[in-house]
Amino acid sequence: MVLEVKGRVEAVEGNQQKLEVKLLLLGANSVGKSALTVRFLTRRFISEYGDIESVNSRVERIHGQEVCFNVWDSLYTQDCEKIPSVSDKQLQWADGIILVYSICDHQSFDVVRQQLQHIRRCRKSIPVVIVANKRDLWRHRSVSDEEGCLLAQSQSCSFFEVSAAETFHGVLLVFHHLFDLIRESRVLRKSSAGMQGIVRSMSAVFWKKRAE
Ligand SMILES: Nc1nc2c(ncn2[C@@H]2O[C@H](COP(=O)(O)OP(=O)(O)OP(=O)(O)O)[C@@H](O)[C@H]2O)c(=O)[nH]1
Ligand SMILES: [Mg+2]
To answer: InterPro entries, alphabetically (predicted)?
Structure first.
């Protein structure tokens, strides 16, 4: 069951704008999507999380600005027909995506690769961060950090290796980095919409003059 939260609002409180971002966590089973989410939301690692899909929020102040993070911790459907297990609803909802795999599970890396291909087909320029989780289990590593890095580079994503079990700060860095990417992409969208407006008005003037 998905607990829905309020839609995107940029509320104005006093003179301050409150930014709202929607982050979606995807990846195979048991890679640590819930562990990363709970770490970010509560700073805690509680080891067992159950299989509940949910959207939860946390408000933070970043560079003096209030930011509301809405985090959708998804479930991976094992139905082969549905691979890559990313719904249109999820893709339309999200402002940014965290793709998680476990460094001890090469299959989970393959799932991330498939999900990323699907995401790039549907939403070419959405900000994506790839997270290699369970770094503390490096003795059982089956995915090298070069593999993760190369995949990220080839699809214009960022890449982090973390351990939800070990540290809060590494996890915080991932969420803050994705927030920065989303903010940059919004600025870019606004300025390119502005440029398009200028080009449209200039060409209207040009065609009017030619017609005279
Ligand atoms: N050692 C270690 N274990 C982790 C780490 N992150 C998660 N785990 C463990 O991995 C198991 C699965 O973690 P979850 O967060 O439930 O994984 P998930 O991706 O949400 O799994 P599903 O919701 O079932 O798809 C749990 O037993 C966690 O305690 C980590 O960084 N290191
Ligand atoms: Mg989970």
So the answer is: P-loop_NTPase, Ras-related_GTPase, Small_GTP-bd, Small_GTPase
Neighbours of ion ligand 2 (CB under 5 A): 33-34
Residues 6+ apart with CB under 8 A from 149: 159
CB-CB contact of 152 with 109 (8 Å) = no
Q: Which two tokens stand for residue 58?
A: 């946390």
Q: Where are the alpha helices (DSSP H) in 133-168?
A: 145-154
CB of 134 within 6 A of ligand 1: the answer is: yes
| pLDDT tens column, 173-209 | 999 999 999 999 988 777 766 666 666 666 666 666 6
Provide the token pair at 23. Answer: 């982050």
CA of 133 to the centre of ligand 2 (A): 13
**Is the Cβ–Cβ distance between 88 and 122 less than 8 Å?**
yes
42 CA distance to ligand 1 middle (Å)? 16
Q: Residue 54: which of 93, 107, 11, 4 has the closest Cα?
A: 4
Q: From the options 3.20.20.110, 3.40.50.300, 3.40.50.1100, 3.40.50.620, give the CATH code of 12-211.
A: 3.40.50.300
